[in-house]
Fold these 3 entries.
Entry 1:
Amino acid sequence: MNAFKNYIPKILVIGDLMIDHYLWGSCERISPEAPVQVVDIAKETTLLGGAGNVINNLKALGADVSVCSVIGDDDNGVELKEMLSAISVDSSNIIVQKGRNTSKKSRIIAVSQQILRYDKESKDEIKEESTFKIIESITKNIASFDTLILSDYGKGVLTASLCQSVITLANENGVKVLVDPKGNDFSKYRGAYLLTPNKKEAMLATNIDIKDDESLEAALVKLKDEVNLNISLITLSEGGIATYENELKRFATVAKEVFDVTGAGDTVIASIAFALSTSKSIEDAASFANLAAGVVVGKLGSATVTLDEIEEYEATLHKSTSDAHIKSFEDINKIVERYRANGKKIVFTNGCFDILHVGHVKYLQEAKSFGDVLIVGLNSDASVSRLKGPNRPVNLAEDRAYILAALEAVDFVVPFEDDTPYELIKMIKPYTLVKGGDYEGKDVVGTEFACELKLVGFVDGKSTTKTIQKIQGTSC
């Protein structure tokens, strides 16, 4: 993920903005006035909805985001602009149209159950005057954006006229336009770089029943040709993402746990736009989007994801390079905080791991079985020399860390300079501290910071010392 952190893409989101309003409470009685529940409201929360959720996802990834939309001259419009300002999103391209209602969806939740939703919004198409003002505003700085996203929620902002004007303007300035479409007629998005319809939307738009790779490819080709796209793309939920540029390519999903798919489509288009804006290929962008979606569906509600979360998630899948698993004290501190906040059980062990052998591997596999995340503290070269003698280590710390990080059982490796990992254990505060069976009856450094201590027996006859003796021909 470091490559994504070296550049901050500038992305403009154009679409239907709305406020998601939640009234949380409890219900213990029925109204005497009518057969309806009475909800005692305890708290209210508001979130950016619609295209706002795409904005939230882009901000979480680290993009510089601007927004363009049309809202009403009402209190909801004022509130929405304040919400955008609070997350440092440029809203200077938002047009206020007199007489229009800014979208606000209010949900009443009682005991975690939504019992009612009421909406206040305008769904008619924006006026031609508003369209003209949007184009006039965007034209002034179109070249400063890396990518444009059209987020269509069918509330009237993204008219056919506006879409075609924006796409033409962007293409003339070499700026990619990505569209999250709505409805079954995608012709208004003609000329966009790509669309991100889900399987159901693609089937409705193409009249093709997608049931296998052959029909999937046919739908992708039809979309590409009829809408004049650079790349055709369809999201397939648990089936991942399919693309067609010159041939069909599929990118498998990487979700381990699915709690809620709310807002996953917004995460996909935001992450693809983010990746393409940093000059990644569509293949890299689709893989990145799958990772982002894998994190988001493991959360409840319309969620977002950060680059750090994606990196950590990728590390647990062991689809990343060993470098991604080797962390500094500062990095592991932040990682541990996030895992602990998500209720994950952290396991810690340490050692020299000079010449890796089957005893090490079995020890680490058993250590990982005690929890969700295994962090291995690795003695530095100087530390190993002090503990094992001047001829050790055989392998340098950089090499030892890289090999350890490649093991499936190991989630993260943290090198340390001291003779003991006391300070590292103090910082991590693992749930389980693991040491070798030879520590039976001995004091173990850092136990006061762990919830439990587990001792793991060694494999008979397997040790670095014995391996060195065998190499030297000195073993008995």
Note: DSSP finds 16 helices and 19 strands in the chain.
Entry 2:
Amino acid sequence: MKLQLSATVLDSPDARELADFYQQLLGWEAKSDDDDWVMLKAPDGGAALSFQTEPRYVRPVWPAGDGDHPMMMHLDIYVDDLDAAGAHALALGAELAEFQPQEGVRVYFDPAGHPFCLFRD
């Protein structure tokens, strides 16, 4: 029996808008692009990153407090230059999180509010 992770899928109020953000952030090409579903392929052949439109999408809160809709997952993205990668993310529409939990890692929110981390070794 073979099991292989094919893709991670992020819900969003607008799949194409969120896919455009990550396509520009990561430099990945679209493998499929429909109105409500976009898949970006990893250049190294690894698992893809996909986006689907969810009309009832609720933006997560991070860090979540009592009664908040918490994040269910986040993306960790390795970078060689934390400052340059952060400036790039901000220019594309990311937002720097107020709470930063550790040195060498910066937490941002994508345009749909999903947290993602840029980190270096």
Note: The chain has two domains: 1-57, 58-121.
Entry 3:
Amino acid sequence: MQRLSLLGAALVLMLSTTPAFAEGPIVIKFSHVVANDTPKGKAALYFKKLAEERTNGAVKVEVYPNSQLYKDKEELEALQLGAVQMLAPSLAKFGPLGVKEFEVFDLPFLFDSYEELHRITQGPIGAALLKRLDSKGILGLAYWDNGFKQFSGNTPLRKPADFKGLKFRIQSSKVLDAQMRALGALPQQLAFSEVYQGLQTGVVDGAENPASNFYTQKLHEVQKYLTLSDHGYLGYALIVNKRFWEGLPAAVRGQLDGALKEATRYANQIAKAENDGDIESVRRSGKTQVLTLTPAERAALRQALAPVHRQMGERIGPQLIQAIHRETGFAMPR
């Protein structure tokens, strides 16, 4: 039924797109799965503001947060069919679409800082990855940071043995599956909108999220411990339906490009501050104990997860992994 409704919406859009440009505002439906008060949510609303101002109302951006329109697995299909025009999915979402190279961003401990990360997302490697989406009817416009991920659970998670036998929610990603198995945990795929209930009911025991997602989704109500592991990166690609975007009047597209660049700067500037603030909010809630790893504990986790880089080489491409290692100065633990 969902697929039929997407097809119907796409047909309606294709029949109405040209007259809409001439007779009224161009509508951009921007769907995402997180809350408005996350870095992505705030950046989406900022883009809406800029786009509508700079086009003098010729464009109307409708933002739909918190999976109001589509869940994780549905939103990319909706974009390809034209039922929505803009998304900012997490980079792990492109693996199931057939662009497995994006799963390189899921590798554990790949980046030690935002500076290292931005050498990739704001450089030629990142641009080449976005270009690979063209064949899927998708244009990749920019990368938006969320932040570095932390582990959460109902028991303290400090060393690899602490994960053994626990059920961990992951996104649909072969790399994240391998990551959790390397720690002895049992990976379970759940849509982001289902994580709170999954943790509350015991379907899963733990999860990994940047602090902004952890706090805004109220996961501190159903998790006793948050470990500041910074073990992985969660970022997004701002993408649009290729046919829609290339069909826009050139002047409008130029105005939107300018709004997009400014919104991207804003998104990436606020990401770290938002996550740091939400860690403090979790502490103040008194519901979740925040654990800080010692250097030795973090090194042990890094050591346990290092084999995932080698294991995923065939899937992602060893040349890509090696290129990122060279660019960031990553050294494989021995």
Note: Residues 71 and 191 are 7 Å apart (CA to CA).
